[in-house]
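Researcher: Re-running this chain for the archive, since the previous output was lost when a drive failed. Same request as before.
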Amino acid sequence: MNISIEMILSYKIAYIRRTGPYGSENVQIMEQLKDWAKEKKLFNESSIILGIAQDNPQFTEPENCRYDTCFVVPEEFSADDEYINFGKILGGKYCVFKISHTAEAMQKAWLEIFPELAKRNYEFDDKRPIMERYAAQMINKHYCEICVPIL
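Model: Regenerated structure tokens:
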């Protein structure tokens, strides 16, 4: 696992929220959002997709866990679509974990992230969400990132 510190910009996002156990169904929502972005002619090699788990499954029943699949859109973009929500992700300092884009690597990374933050004396910023970042150029090389906000 490759780890770096990055200042991430604030993003305007289009997103779809799914409620239910985290897992493979999130992939279906991601494909739906990618299809929407292609239809709007937004999807290209510099596209960024974010996955945000809104709830900790240790404290929230699986059927109540919320997962937002987000697509970074230009600030000036607007659309009227009943299935797509719009919002903003606040930027700031993040500890970025680059990992292989596999389910096994993701599960392993989620177990190692917080011990790794503690080992490096980074303090988690619980005012901003942890994001799974899927940049097109990284996905093509079979990598993704988990971006953890730190103070």
